[in-house]
Automatic annotation (TrEMBL):
One of its GO terms (cellular component) is extracellular region. GO terms for molecular function: glycosyltransferase activity; peptidoglycan L,D-transpeptidase activity. It comes from Thermoactinomyces daqus. Gene3D superfamilies: L,D-transpeptidase catalytic domain-like (2.40.440.10). The active site is at H76 (proton donor/acceptor), C92 (nucleophile). Keywords: Cell shape, Cell wall biogenesis/degradation, Glycosyltransferase, Hydrolase, Peptidoglycan synthesis, Transferase. It holds the Pfam family YkuD. This is L,D-transpeptidase. The lineage of its organism: Bacteria, Bacillati, Bacillota, Bacilli, Bacillales. The keyword Transcription regulation does not apply.
Length: 117
């Protein structure tokens, strides 16, 4: 069974199947004032965010949102790729759009997400 481990200090999201590391992705995390909450959660929904119109701007959530069991927090893409690797969000985990789309192929509703320091 797949699960996600997020290491805030490393700005990395790790995807495991059982105990085997499958993938690793760079992430952006919460600012000091709006830190990403540590704990164990699950993915509760997956919502695509297509362009607002062909060739138009992306949503702040990029191309995909995966909501966590902690309300108002999620793993999502971004319309600002330079924010990856930094403390910039209001607590969510930001990923490059291609990475969050790739991750979504491996995980479903109910996938465990552990957020560690």
């Amino acid at each position: 069974m797949a699960h996600i481990v997020i290491r805030l200090s490393r700005f990395r999201l790790y995807l495991y199947r059982d105990s085997q590391l499958i993938k690793s992705y760079p992430i952006g995390i919460g600012k000091v004032a709006t830190q990403t909450p540590q704990g164990v959660y699950t993915i509760v929904n997956k919502v695509p965010y297509p362009y607002s119109y062909p060739g138009g701007p992306l949503s702040p959530f990029g191309t995909l949102w995966m909501g966590l069991s902690r309300p108002h927090y999620g793993i999502h893409g971004t319309n600002c790729p330079s924010s990856i690797g930094k403390r910039v969000s209001k607590g969510c985990i930001r990923m490059h759009n291609r990475d969050v789309e790739d991750l979504a192929r491996y995980v479903g509703i109910g996938t465990k997400v552990m957020i560690l320091p």
